[in-house]
Amino acid sequence: MLDYDALRCFHEVLRYGGFEKGAQALSLTQSAVSQKIKRLEQSVGGPVLVRTKPLRPTPLGNELLAHIQKVSVLEEALNIQSGLTASAAPLSVAVNNDVLATWFSQVLAMFSDTRANPVHIVNADQTQTRDILQQGRVMACISQTGTPVTGGQSLRLGTMKYQLYASPRFIERYLSKGIDAEAVMQTPGLLYDEYDVTLLTDYQRECLNMAPSFTTCHWYPSSHGFVKMALDGVVWALLPTLQVTQEVNEGSLVSLFPDKELGVPLFWHWITLDSAALGDLTKAVKHVAKQQLK
Fold first, then answer.
1. Which of 68, 183, 210, 234 could join 7 in a cystine, given CB atoms 3.0 to 4.6 angstroms apart?
2. What does the pLDDT look like over 173-211, one tens digit per residue?
3. Are 172 and 221 part of one and the same domain?
4. What residues are paired with 237 via a beta bridge?
5. In this structure, are residues 7 and 67 in contact, taking their beta carbons and an 8 Å threshold?
6. What are 106-125's pLDDT values in tens digits?
7. 141 with 218, same domain?
8. What is the distance between the terminal CA atoms of the chain, rounded to a whole angstrom?
């Protein structure tokens, strides 16, 4: 039989990225937590952690992580049905930067009106979030892939729309002779990280009908800073139209190609569990997405 105290230690150590912080969250000593995880590894017949910085689960650890998260949510539901006092189990969700920067806070606002469950968000690109769900690290995610994971469900939320933006100052400095795709791609652009290359590639191919080009791009992994770099006239940037409505209305950002818009489909995935809290989170995601992703 699994040692659930040890499993919870394992879960907290991974959540907080180390033994010391995990032990603090559990009000235990670091030595006690380390011993519990060692006993867990002995009982399951293999290592559950890759002891790097930050700590990572092994494939076996991923399976145990998925299990303890499900157990926590199911225990909460069972306690409520039994009339026992139940602590609100955390819900772990993988969400990409652009959704976090635009409408996911509204989801949490709606969810928190009825539920006390903490929501722990793993920030990852929309091309990576489904894999994180499949690994068992989270219980739900927003992805651009629609196929459900094994033991899960999915629904389409709508389409996130992107355009290429720059400031009037940038246009005056770099594009005073005219705006065309070749000229723009020879000026300084912006990428969030290596995963953002896929999004820009899709835009260049589908909207500008040109081969991908990134040689002039800065890398700046900050959602707020991403917009700020464009506002300051340093770069052009591919941004969600939702994120810069005010800036466009004020004239501080200009769409370089107003008739060229990339649509990225978004899907909500969740593990099939008898959890009212996860059901309410799903309802909140559907409600807000319906309003925002028109």
1. 68
2. 999 999 999 999 999 999 999 999 999 999 999 999 999
3. yes
4. 165
5. yes
6. 999 999 999 988 899 999 99
7. yes
8. 49
